[in-house]
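Input record (Table S2, row 483):
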Amino acid sequence: MENDSRKLIIASNRLPFILERDGGSWKLLPGSGGLVTALAPVLRDRGGIWIGWPGLSGTADISGQISRASDEAGFDMKPVYLDAEDVRRYYKGLSNEVLWPLFHDLQSYCNFDPSYWQSYLDINARFAGVIGEQAGSGDFIWVHDYHLLATGSEIRKAGISASTGFFLHIPFPPLDIFAKLPWRSEILRSMLDYDLIGFQTPRDRRNFIQCLRTFVDDIAIVGKGQVIEARAGEKTIRIGYFPISIDYTEFSQLAGSREVADAAWFIHEDIPKGKIVLGVDRLDYTKGIPYRLRAFEDFLEKHPELHRKITLVQVVVPSRRDIPVYEELKIEIERMVGEINGRFTRSGWVPIHYIFRSLSRPELLGYYRAAEIALLTPLKDGMNLVAKEYCASNIERSGVLILSEFAGAAPQMKKEAILVNPYNIEQVSDAIFQAWTMDLRERRSRMEKLQASVARNDIYWWVNSYLKASLAGALDDFPTVST
Ligand code: ADQ
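Output record (adenosine-5'-diphosphate-glucose complex):
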């Protein structure tokens, strides 16, 4: 695409693919995770550029792989290269040892190493440099997530005049917790260099505004509703909440396919006794997997009459395994699964099936479709797309969703899901019992409402409402390209 035609430029930490060494050559896999699920279809349909780190810190020439990934994805990708030290300080350090745990209210996991901050700023400036090579003044630059909070100010310093938006996929913490960040004022001031700042929920925006009022001088907040304004000196910044979603039609159509129906049938055939309770998460301490396992154990203790009639399938996708705390979590989960299975397994019935790998889309949907109950209990989560994917894939319209009240999806789903406090082991255990015993009429009525709401507010609604709120106008302002 030429620089003078109007483009959507996405910047995120990672480019949307995974490169793996396969003997002497490279294997290219589509990326996983919420952001990729959310944005890939939009760029494919609308055209645009995605800027990010290819995920490798060596010196290998991977330009051919990036072109191949662009061709396969149907949109352009431009790399931001990081060396091993950048990865250590900016990515593993400030992003994943400071911002990730702190923004999920888990300050005890933080490592506030002073050397991380300068590297974070340098890499944010490097992103701004690559953005500057691609952006024309009429383009819209949409920057994603906590790795790039400071890219807004680096874009301005580089003299790029295109309008900019930022979207935070993870929660924004309450004042008392954010206040612990050594670079709190710098982060807030950098964020104010974006034209539009988007959060997942009103809760996150409320927290952000409270922090602005505390740490930024002369800030005025004006308006109410989904998008409001902050006035800081000469500048006006829009601040909104935009709960992210999924491509509902794609999920529900694939879930209805023969391939997924067969996969679901085989899963139930392998677990013939009673109902399947499903947990699906990236390996992460924010997802609350050990508490969930304890709740399931409590349920098994209290309901011996339901032994053999219920099985928990816990799918965990490998993630950030080179960070020690993630490896420790994996060991902890495996220890707990082994202990619970050792205690309750009887001939012909294993209470927990544990899967530790990435699944293909049809396989994942097979599990969604086969499961009578979804048990999603993050300690805190920006949104939790799995909750929405489960509903879209529930072709039988009889599944029950048990959801953490601390997931960003909770306000949208609170009437029809069973909401729980993930730290309350007995409450989660009772919720499993409630879901197990809920009659079909109630299950159907709840699931139909959930499906209607996810279908109405899908990923296209999300993109559209974000772009409408931005200075760039609506999605229809961007040219559609045929791919
Ligand atoms: P994540 O923390 O990655 O995303 P989530 O929203 O649940 O969390 O998305 C996970 C994605 O991974 C889903 O799209 C799911 O389909 C996929 N996935 C899960 N298990 C898989 C498996 N075994 N194999 C293959 N794919 C699998 C971050 C925030 C979230 C926020 C999203 C989007 O932490 O809170 O919802 O971004 O904004």
